[in-house]
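Worked problem 6 (solution included).
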Amino acid sequence: MAAPESRGALRHDEADSDDFDLTDANSFKPSAMAISFQCRIPENGSLDLNVTGAYYDKINVHIPGVAKAVNWWRRRPFTLTGSVPGSVLTHEINRLKNINTTPQGDQPSITPTTRVFSRPVPRVDDPDLRLVTVAVVNQVAGTGPSSTFFQMGFAVNAAGGLVVEPYPEVEAVDRNEEEQSIDLLYRKKRTYAIGHGCAAEWEGGGDLSVSSVRAVALPIHEVVSLTPNVYLTDEDGNYCLDSEGQRQAVTVSMQELAQGTANGQAQVETVLRLYGEWISARQAEIEDLLSASARLLVATWL
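Solution. The predicted structure is:
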């Protein structure tokens, strides 16, 4: 995050904009990073922030045998913490506010500015629901390496019962069958935050609550190799591992079936049992799907 030669600011002229604009986040030398998310804020709820990064101090070093001093740069990591009360998020809306942060350890010689912007969710009449943008901005005077932050990132943690909810999506009433099918297949793969000048990450989602969202400059995601195999899982949905730590695939041996062994019969029974459990799980979701469809239909007619 380089110090900006011409400083920009968060746009808040369009409070209902889904894509919250950060001018400094999209420049060639970005001086800001931010994430936006939707949250439900109870009376005692709050957001806890943890900002990490580093800057470099220039040191003049005199090396024996070298007439001219050379410049070395020493990395200075830092961690800043702060908190935003729920009352600020619910009542002080459409206002860009600075967040007071406290260094953990030694006081850094330069620090970024942390800001928050809260606004109501467009077309949603819910006093406890807010769209929140948290931004970290470099406002250090000067330019060059001595005024630049490196390896920046931050996490926003929900506290006091505050809940991060899925980011609002555009609900088009004229979606075709393919789009509706995709919505159905990926209804539990929701987006919980979007990044501005960075990537947004979170833990949980689907049937699990999300209590923390993060701004990451270089996101990393390991994609599990895709196979047609079905793997055994326990009651919590975790993979059952063998003695070598590998997932156990559900298989049926043609040789065992041809020989009519008990092992082959057990393998077939396992497949039938798992398929029956899968059907039961899908049937249990029908009521929720019908309720969601009814809510969408009501919203369409309103």
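Discussion: The radius of gyration is 26 Å.
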